[in-house]
Amino acid sequence: MKICEKCGTLMILQKEDNKLYFVCKKCKIKIEMKKSNCILKQTIKKQKPLILKNNENIEQLPKTKKKCEKCGNNEVYWWSRQTRASDEPETRFYRCTKCRQTWREYS
Ligand SMILES: [Zn+2]
Ligand SMILES: [Zn+2]
To answer: Is the CB of residue 95 less than 8 Å from the CB of residue 88?
Structure first.
């Protein structure tokens, strides 16, 4: 939704040559819609699935037996992530199921 800066009328969305425009019918102003929203969506899609945000999806991660240095608990969630250069070793992440301490190890 966009409102015409000139007259305050609600502008309508129009498609032309595969581009989207906001058009004010009253004063014939045409503004191209920025595609930043679409780019943002694509970037999110390309992200690797196992990068965690806060505690999101943590329960779906595999668990393994490993000692947490912080609280002594013997069960952790783990996931791995390849660094950008493919010849670099894979990085493993661990998170304690109890105190949620997170750390990484290089294999
Ligand atoms: Zn207008
Ligand atoms: Zn712990």
So the answer is: no
30: β partners: 23
State in words which class domain 1-47 has: mainly beta
Q: How many angstroms separate the alpha carbon of residue 73 from the centre of ligand 2?
A: 5
> Catalytic residues, which ones?
87-88
Domain ranges of the chain: 1-47, 48-106
* Residue 101: strand pairing partners: none
The verdict on pTM exceeding 0.90 is: no
Å from CA of 23 to ligand 1 middle: 8
Nearest by Cα to 2 from 12, 32, 30, 19: 12
Q: Which CATH architecture has domain 48-106?
A: Single Sheet (2.20)
4-18 per-position pLDDT tens digit: 989 999 999 999 888
- Say if 1-47 and 48-106 have the same CATH topology: yes
The alpha-helical segments, DSSP class H, found in 47-96 are none
